[in-house]
Amino acid sequence: MVKDPPIRRMRSLSLSLLLSMILLIICIVGFISFNGYLYTKNNFERESNLLQAQTEQNIIEAMRLEDITWNVYDETLNDQMKQGLISVLLEYNRTRGEPDKMNLPMVKNSLGKNYDIYVINESGVIISTTYTEELGMDFRQIPYFYDYLTKIRLSEGFFPDRIVREKLGAGQLRKFAYMPTPDHRYILELGLSGTTFDAISQQLDDKNNILKIVSVNPYVAQFTIFNSMGRRLDNNSLPEKTVQGYINEVLKDRKTLEVQDREHQLTTRYLFVDLKVDKYGSDPSRVVAITYNLQLIQDALNRLILFHIVTGIAAISIGCALAYEFSRRITRPIKKIVDDVDIIAHGDLEHRIGSTQITEFAILENSTNMMVDSLKLALQQVKDGEILRREIIDQLPVAVFMKSIEDGRYTFWNKACERIFELEASNVIGRTDQELFSKEIISIIDHEDKEAILNHISISNKKISNKSRGQRILHMIIVPIFNSENTLQYILGICEDLTEETRNLKMDLLFSIIRQDILDHLSVIVNYLERAQLKTTHEAMQLFFDKTIESIESIRKQMAFGKSLQDLGITSPTWQSVKKSWNDAVRLLPAYTIDISIETADIELYADPLLPRVFYNLLMNALIHGDRQLTKVRLYTSISGESLVLIVEDNGIGIPFDEKEKIFEFGYDKGAGFGLFLIREILGYTGIMITETGEPGKGVKFEILVPKGKFRFTS
Predict the structure, then answer these.
(1) What is the C-alpha to C-alpha distance for residues 624 and 622, in angstroms, rounded to an integer?
(2) Which of 7, 427, 630, 654 has its CA 20 to 30 A from that of 449?
(3) Max alpha carbon distance in the chain (Å)?
């Protein structure tokens, strides 16, 4: 007797409908309110940004206009500065180039009390001056200005500078000009100050001009102006260390910097105003630190939030009342239909939906009755089809398994899976990877699943350890299964055991290679023994014995190489060091006299274990076909896009253009085993390609193209 499923606590349809409508109203009101809030916030921020940009642009233009005014006045003083420097130069010449003997106060009195004289040595240090506050000042602390002074010292003529504030002293405005001494040992500097400068500065006061500009921006909390020396423009003092660091960064990069204080809703912009002119040494550029208070925007947004909350509560209250009345009207006939459907759901497929006397539900009633009839037929067809599908897949010679994405549990495991993985279906179905496998295997499975989902398929060859059959090589295909709505539901795996096929193929290839090389060396030994019979001197006999021993040693190395590969297992590609593979190949060579070198970083290739054999055949190809002009073979690398190129190059006779592709054909090579055909096949196992691009007569150049993902740098 089939038991009824336990009765679960259910909510009424009317309540669910009511709650759904209330939730819908809340969502709509919330969306409208949130969207209005975001729109207003964006408008505030946009207007604030526009006002900020306009304020900063006006400040820059005002400072540039002031700078132009200073330049116009500045240039009117150049002639009298030049005459003053000529007087200083005459005094320098009078002392025959000894600044210590110059009577600078006398020259100052002759020029006027507003003038000051400075003598700067080749190290950029003021060694003599009538303005004692700047005596000993080292301009090397200002690299760009020291370079400018050095250029003047090594030149000829008069070099006027700008009206700027002095670095030391009271920071008063001065007009400077320079002239190198004839012996180019010193620079004579003349500084001019006066009340006229201060009067003009008051008329063109930066702070007052900027104050007028920022007064129209309600978000500006304060501002401070700094000169190119990082000092405040109003009192020539240095700011605190934090601000000084920001200003130094701005002056170094010569671009504006923004610093935010989220805790206090403040943003400080260190605005860089570039006023530097290349022909002058001084830099009158400014840094204006403007602090914006964004709390005003937040206050307006808070008022907007309050308005939307009040409006939303009113809209939700009205909507809830309407939803309650609507839900009562619609749920009464639905309850009757639900009762009939519940009877059918409990297995009574002969029951019919009764009429509710409502036109809108007539189609639902008729359709439900038709669905019940169709369901009875479909259930029988599904049962028959499911049995047929399971039997077919269960008897396949390849392993097929499937697991659910929702909970990660296996839903299918055929007999081939039981044989390959040695896990019974009864122990797998309904369990997860975490319950069946080790952490290491779970990590591999997760990687394969993610690759399959990303690329819609994952194809790989892998090794597993089988308790009864030893190590096996599997060809694995993982694919994601989507439903009609393109939602991922299952992970399907298909697996085939390729151990025997792979082992037989690779062992046949290995033994063919070694057999051919041994036969070649035996031919050499026989040839030398025959020729040794014709020799009579001890030296000649010894030479042929040495050659014979070399060939025997090569045979021994070939057999040892084959044995080592057989012991390690040669069926699957592995990560291999290029340097080690190259050196292993060199050790297999017979005696040679040429220079064999390698110039690569520490690189590993994902290639067949016969990679050393690839390098060996390339080296033997060079030794056999390089002719007498062959003196060196080298291996080096280059990068082509996302690929790595290994280049094996020699200086032999090269390969004719019409043979560059033929040399890779089976049986074409003369004297190097399976030769280049073997090389291309071995590399092709992992998608690596080889071509010959050398110039005939100048040497062979083999380029081995390794695609992305098949190489890696290990240092």
Answers:
(1) 6
(2) 427
(3) 131
